Amino acid sequence: MPKKNFMEAIIEALTQVPILTETANECAAMPKTNHTFENKGIKRRNCAGCYNKLRATLNSKDAQRKTKKIKSYCAECNKGYCAKCFYENHL
């Protein structure tokens, strides 16, 4: 049994909630986004995703100070994102 199926079986048994899996047909029906990850930014920005995560627990001044400074951004949204946060928010 593959590890993924084993873990899903354990989670279903403990929570009594079925895990929904996506099929190829469902994925094809989802609209594609035109968001592109640009790594050519001129100015350093705060990562919007990291800032929002830190903002949940810190005040705005501390969150802004601790947020990653990056040059990459989403060309469509015009927001700065590190690679991890871009893929979490756009895929």
Characterise the protein shown here.
The chain has about 90 residues and is mainly alpha-helical. Helix content is about 45%, strand content about 10%. The chain has five helices and five strands. The chain has helices at about 5-15, 25-30, 50-55, 60-65, 85-90, and strands spanning about 35-40, 45, 70, 75, 80. The strands form two sheets. It has a three-stranded antiparallel sheet, with no helix packed on it. Strands 2-3 form a two-stranded antiparallel sheet. A hairpin with a 4-residue loop joins strand 4 and strand 5. The model is unreliable at about 25-30 (pLDDT under 50). This is PiggyBac transposable element-derived protein 4 C-terminal zinc-ribbon domain-containing protein.
Concise description?
The chain has helices at residues 3-15, 24-29, 48-55, 60-66, 83-90, and strands at residues 37-38, 45-46, 69-70, 73-74, 79-80. It has 91 residues and is mainly α. Strands 1-4-5 form a three-stranded antiparallel sheet, with no helix packed on it. A two-stranded antiparallel sheet has the order 2-3.
